[in-house]
Design brief:
0% helix, five-stranded antiparallel β-sheet, globular, mainly beta, seven-stranded mixed β-sheet
Amino acid sequence: QVQLVESGGGLVQAGGSLRLSCAASGATFSNYNMAWFLPAPGKERYFVAAIRGSGGSTYYADSVKGRFTIPRDNAKNTVYLQMNSLNSEDTAVYYCAAASTRRLIWRWVYTGYYDAWGQGTQVTVSS
């Protein structure tokens, strides 16, 4: 089972940039599609961005398109969330998630399709 550890959160001014990292261990990293989520009411989470294990395809929530990117480095077992043009509405805990590429179906926006989660990293955007 893959284990995930996020880092890189912090305080940034509105309009600034931040790069989050999610380091994976315990499994072959390229065998996992990766994603970032935000907390939502109850136990659900909002989808932010996702990338396939090969790195060939990426997916974004409408609210972050053009501002965030989700690169991955399979040699370093790490996925990133590059966050640009930040605003106060981006303030949240960001969670990294991993979905096995062995899944026949992977609906990247839904938390139920993920096999492992990190503990989260706090991002605070000051206006």
